[in-house]
Amino acid sequence: MQIDLNSDLGEGYGAWRMGDDAAMLDIVSSANVACGFHAGDPRGLLETLQQAARRGVAVGAHVSYPDRVGFGRRPMDVAAQELTADVIYQIGALQGLARAAGTRVTYVKPHGALYNTIAEDARQGDAVIAGIVAVDPALVLMGLAGAPILDRARAAGLRVVAEAFADRAYTPSGALVSRRLPGAVLHDPDLVADRMVRLAAEGVIEAADGSTLQLQADSICVHGDSPGAVQMAARTRQALRDRRIAIVPFAP
Amino acid sequence: MQIDLNSDLGEGYGAWRMGDDAAMLDIVSSANVACGFHAGDPRGLLETLQQAARRGVAVGAHVSYPDRVGFGRRPMDVAAQELTADVIYQIGALQGLARAAGTRVTYVKPHGALYNTIAEDARQGDAVIAGIVAVDPALVLMGLAGAPILDRARAAGLRVVAEAFADRAYTPSGALVSRRLPGAVLHDPDLVADRMVRLAAEGVIEAADGSTLQLQADSICVHGDSPGAVQMAARTRQALRDRRIAIVPFAP
Amino acid sequence: MQIDLNSDLGEGYGAWRMGDDAAMLDIVSSANVACGFHAGDPRGLLETLQQAARRGVAVGAHVSYPDRVGFGRRPMDVAAQELTADVIYQIGALQGLARAAGTRVTYVKPHGALYNTIAEDARQGDAVIAGIVAVDPALVLMGLAGAPILDRARAAGLRVVAEAFADRAYTPSGALVSRRLPGAVLHDPDLVADRMVRLAAEGVIEAADGSTLQLQADSICVHGDSPGAVQMAARTRQALRDRRIAIVPFAP
Amino acid sequence: MQIDLNSDLGEGYGAWRMGDDAAMLDIVSSANVACGFHAGDPRGLLETLQQAARRGVAVGAHVSYPDRVGFGRRPMDVAAQELTADVIYQIGALQGLARAAGTRVTYVKPHGALYNTIAEDARQGDAVIAGIVAVDPALVLMGLAGAPILDRARAAGLRVVAEAFADRAYTPSGALVSRRLPGAVLHDPDLVADRMVRLAAEGVIEAADGSTLQLQADSICVHGDSPGAVQMAARTRQALRDRRIAIVPFAP
Fold this sequence. Notes:
The structure is a homotetramer. Chain A is α/β, with parallel strands linked by helices. Chain A has a single domain, classed as TIM Barrel (Alpha-Beta Barrel), CATH 3.20.20. The first copy, chain A, has eight helices and ten strands. The first copy, chain A, has a seven-stranded parallel beta barrel, surrounded by four helices. In chain A, strands 7-8 form a two-stranded antiparallel sheet. In chain A, α3 (80-100) packs parallel to α5 (122-135) and α4 packs across α5 (122-135). The two termini of chain A are 17 Å apart. The interface between A and B is medium-sized, with 27 and 27 residues.
């Protein structure tokens, strides 16, 4: 048995730091690296990519709406042609930096509001898919497990990877519980670790109402934006390994 | 006999236009395409690259300091590591867009204040060279004919291309007359065309004091940022062809 | 009889020009001046404000979402506290420049997607109102004639000004015909001028279906982003004056 | 006896935090608040200004070159007219936010590379002075104690405040020891506190070579960008108060 662990990295900007990339690169098998639109300056990104290369961690392009002050978290009504070109630009930029760092980009994970929007929205989803296909159709798209975007991407010829979130509650139908609702985010490291072991081993996760849910996930997203988050991610990693579930990149 | 004609293109930004890319792509053999740091948004750049691809015009990455409001024209004291990473990021972004447009980046021409600074400044020049080498050592560096940067790049293993400026006056030693001095910029299309024919045919240009100067140039820069500029560029192109000097990209 | 004519000015950015501010300042009585978020760099804005001051044209803050590459035309889901602070920042910046130019900001007109969103959306509308009140409750809010935002602003204690668009078709209920529909934008200068004279004189405008509509408007928006637009604006001005309708700022 | 303590605040940006503004506002009497060009988003700035207002801490505009990714630390060759307008824009924006927060801007302290450049450079210095005078000639300019900029500002009619740096070594002539040299930055809180008490009480500071130096300073800059820095600032504050040196804003 095996699964991928991914985390959002390279999210500093100039003099500003965010998270502990070095610590997380010892935990995850795949790094979603910012591309400059919501976070990440070239020099900082290059350093994160060099660290990822040294540890053999797979690299994905964490593409975003162009909204640095909003950290890519604010929905934007971007035209399809703009979005496609924005995705191409960001992937290309990260590919250049990855090449310089001795590694390469193997997948694309949209960030924040773009991630959430394209899970369901066909117009923006197709624009993102078109951007990926135009740069390199061998790139894998990482998206929300169970969401329509994965089917659309597969239909367009892309390989896809379904992602689950370690610290988020799920509805009985497999959607994430909205962050605006109580209990949406889980804070108990042991509970989170147990849930992820079960997910990886059995393909099952307990929903917020206590029912169980089939969820096919190839990768688990863990966070590193606080010391507590790093510890939770490390705890999840350890629990998986204790159950002899290998943590390996999904990407080829 | 042959020579390359190049021009700065893709210099709009969002709703703002600059120059007439379509007209210039019918005149030049090489397009220095902005990379987003001084000008160029992804969608507009993609369109310019698609037009260049259709016409078989070679594409160069017109990398800049990160200074959009100053259009990359203001000297900045950027640290070497920052500059190297900025160059990599910009080349990568344009490579991604070029791939999507069915073409590829074959050379790099620094823009504006960066171009002028690295002509002489070894620290920034070496940082730019390091960025190019890190992305792809097969990329050609275009620089000011006669300037030390060309030797430094050659020593680092890069192929270089020496550039002359169609509408600029030269000092007897081969430098450009400063824009702050009268007569620095030439406005007579016939005079400009005659000078460029002589340069291409004989490797000679008349300096501002009337003396003649040996100048080895592989490419001639023409501008397209006004209707008059486009006409001057077209006039130069015609004069070269009338003398059976082929206008072809230098790049492989 | 009198009416105000307004236009969007100061919309260049650095090396990029847009429209002909000098020409429009001879036509309008009120200038909606960009504040840097969708367009306008400080130096260019200062020049526009100096020209407005010399001609006695009233100055409004043309506040926007923070989206320069999208020219403020893309809807964004900005949190209320962010939007309020963004509005305050922009008004303050323009007030500083206006003071330096010997004039002052008397009103606020939201730009582009923000203008359209707050016409109906109470959450964003209230956030904009809160920003204006926090800086200076004597500032006037300019908004779409007939839209709910005007009532909300009045209820918050602001003076408001209702605006009509010279070159736009109206639905029978007084809304603007969507730009996605044919006929949404009018191109005949004489027709536009006649409509605006009737609007100013009788408070009536003909809707797209031929019916007539009562529309109370204190100000008419004209555009200056093309030579044809400037001519149309001048034609409207002349038609109003021919009918002895004075063109004067609404602002105190 | 009395002196002012100042610190750079409001230096977060969107999701990125920097320093502990709340802690520093309990220590200092004057807050140099970022204006958005090197740091500071409107919402975060508004919160910092509200906290400063509640504590009665004086507010200065910490104006910068437009270089967010470089945090305003990189020298830029900005034209005088651009710099003047940039200064006006930033002061105005902070004035608007300060008004909304129930306080006001009483002084201007240029930031980072701009601070260092104008200490000596007359062209850029005069451009900054012109910007301040244009917005409000009652604003005080804070500058490096002993530097020519203070005389130039006084000659232009501005009130000035001379500033010393708590954690920096001085040359025998009163300049700061370059950060590139060993010993440029002091790390011993007790040593720093003792030096500042002596400076406030006697107008004397020990230079790096052991000689003593007359230095007239109205304000002492302390930093808050790390837990250690906050402690050092608190230690300096306590040492001054133990010697009955009041810590009060210089500004009217």
